[in-house]
Amino acid sequence: MTIKMERIWIAGPCAAESREQLLDTAAQLVEQAQERDFSLHYFRTGAWKVRSTPDSFAGAGENALPWLQEVQKTYHIPVCVEVMNAHQVELCAKHDIYAVWVGARTSVNPIEVQQIADAVKHSAFTVIIKNPMIPDLKLWIGNIERFLQADIRRVMAIHRGFSDVHENIYRNAPLWHIPIELKVRIPELPILCDPSHLCGNVEWIPEVSQLAMNYGFNGLMVECHYHPEQALSDVGQQMLPADWADMISHLDLRNDTADLELVKQRSTLENIDNQISTLLYQRMKMVDEIAEIKRKNHIAVVQPQQWQQVVKRYAKHPEDPSYQAFIERFLELLHQSAIERQK
Ligand code: PEP
Ligand code: MN
Fold this sequence. Notes:
The chain has an eight-stranded parallel β-barrel, surrounded by four helices. The protein has helices at residues 19-35, 64-75, 86-94, 110-120, 137-149, 177-185, 195-199, 205-214, 241-250, 260-296, 304-314, 321-342, and strands at residues 8-12, 42-45, 79-82, 99-102, 126-130, 155-159, 191-193, 219-223. By secondary structure, the chain is α/β, with parallel strands linked by helices. α1 runs parallel beside α2, α1 runs parallel beside α9 and α6 (177-185) packs antiparallel against α10 (260-296). The model has no long low-confidence stretch (mean pLDDT 93). α6 (177-185) links the parallel β6 and β7 (191-193). It binds phosphoenolpyruvate and manganese (II) ion. Manganese (II) ion binds next to loops.
């Protein structure tokens, strides 16, 4: 007997902008999902947005709550909203909002998370906890435990990627082994992926969503907007409802219980590949800058002794001759490509 894995689809705009935007986006999401024979489980939006700069659009705030109540009543879809403090929890409760989530910025602060946990204690709220911006699994688990201890029956987690001090090809680096380790530690906890904040662009969302499904994630939270090009926040990463529904209906959903140990190893490899490709890209950009300095100062492109020293420094694996041969070939390729680029 195969046990069907629970899948949860959450979608909706980054920020609550207007009544029309929320109701129209919700209408399209529900209709598009229905046409493809699946359900939207929660409608998401941020009434209050945490923005990096003071002049950015910060959401419609409390005004959005009656609009969201209308979404819930009209389409019978539970709504989830990000909360950062007890007062916002209170306002959500007053407007019958079904679910709340803790964002990546709040998730780094256990004091604030505990205040939210105290505010939702013994309530019927579904609570979703995003990973903290920093890759700290203990902190993420601690946040989850605060809500379990607050007697919240429906607790879920979301992997939205991590801030990276290095330039990464993703908006937030997907350190897959961290949510997978979370799954190992708390197997009954549904873990979703948020490919929107992870990728930072719509183009990569389908691929990353499929990867999350392959790794055994329980669902997705995807940013969708009825006019993505006019979005007041996170423009470029919000999908059209039709594109979202199309993507969900094309996901390859396997029900077999994957070997978690193997999934963990694979995800660690994926993480290493991401780091390698990010570093190689950074290196090529650096090569371009050096080429410009050399050109300005009339310095020769190739300086052979310097490169031989690099090879000597990094190809030091006599205990593993085949790896030694590989790294020499790899460094040679790197060198040749840099020379070609400089020319
Ligand atoms: C969001 O989901 O709108 C959001 C702000 O996400 P995060 O907390 O993951 O940055
Ligand atoms: Mn957003």
